[in-house]
Amino acid sequence: MIPDVTTVLSGVAVVLLAAFIKGTVGFGFPPIATSLLALFIDVKTAIVLLIVPNIVMDAIQMVRRGDLLATARRLVVILVSGAVGTVIGTRLLVMLPPWVASLVLGAFTLAFVALNATRFTLRVAPAWERPLAPVAGLAAGLVGGLTNTPGTTLVIFFYALGLPKHEFVRAVSLSFVVLKLVQLAAVAHYGLLSWGLLEVSLGLTAVALTAFWLGLKVQDRLDQKNFNRAVLIFLAVLGLWLVLRSLL
Question: Is pLDDT larger for residue 88 or for residue 109?
Fold first, then answer.
């Protein structure tokens, strides 16, 4: 079903907010936009509408700074396992309600933030990055396919690795582009994507780019310490949001 005018206008406001936050901290567009847009339309339609804007914004982020090829080589295991998880998660989206995954993801996110709020900072040692990569990728894909929020799992993993700001943003963005392309193909395969929805999605993409650009300007002004603080604060809000959304 193609959304009516009122729904589209609501979607524009939602996308503007979520795109600005994404530009600022490098992630957060799917959970915010999906949750708010689902107030006006069913969650499956919301997920489909938001895939293309996410792909475009992440493509811009991943090529802005640094060595993209080096990042791609580092993340190849995460990307492959994430793609597999995304296909499975999208199948679960067709079959199951997504609230269970949202509850688990939100609780895990809040626990991670609580640990980092103390003097104990959860870190993944370099020696453990490769063994944990397929687990992180598969989990991100499964959650992303089911709830449209693959980023939270990956953000926690990349944050625990202690990546510098630009490497962190580039790693998140590259992962999103790959997983969202797989998700786009999966939703089309399962019959969730129509030409009408694709046209609306492209329109929302154009809207998102303005707010996204403003968010990038804010991100560029944040030093590493303040950027890390912004990431943790947003993770805390996001985790609480996911838990409340799944319970209400």
Answer: 88
User: What does the domain layout of the chain look like in residue ranges?
Assistant: 5-247
- Cα separations in angstroms, 171 against 15, 107, 165, 231: 23, 24, 10, 14
CA distances (Å), origin 169, targets 43, 44, 101, 134, 238:
27, 27, 24, 20, 18
**Residue carrying the six token digits 């199951």:** 96
Among 85, 19, 77, 75, smallest CA distance to 52 is for 19
> In this prediction, what percent of the chain has a pLDDT beyond 90?
29
H helices of the chain, where? 5-25, 29-37, 43-62, 68-95, 99-117, 126-147, 151-160, 165-189, 195-221, 224-247
DSSP 94-132: HHS-THHHHHHHHHHHHHHHHHHHSS------HHHHHHH
User: How buried is residue 99: exposed, middle or buried, by Cβ count under 10 Å (0-12/13-18/19+)?
Assistant: middle
162: left (phi over 0), alpha (psi -120 to 50) or beta: left
* Per-residue pLDDT band at 105 (split at 50, 70, 90): low
CA–CA separation, 175 vs 53, rounded Å? Answer: 15
Tens-place pLDDT, residues 180-212: 898 899 888 888 888 888 988 899 999 999 999
Which residue type is seen at 108?
F
pLDDT of 133: 94
User: What pLDDT, on the 0 to 100 scale, is given for residue 102?
Assistant: 66
Give pTM, 2 decimals: 0.79
Q: Are 79 and 137 in contact (CB under 8 A)?
A: yes
Site of tokens 């609580």: 114
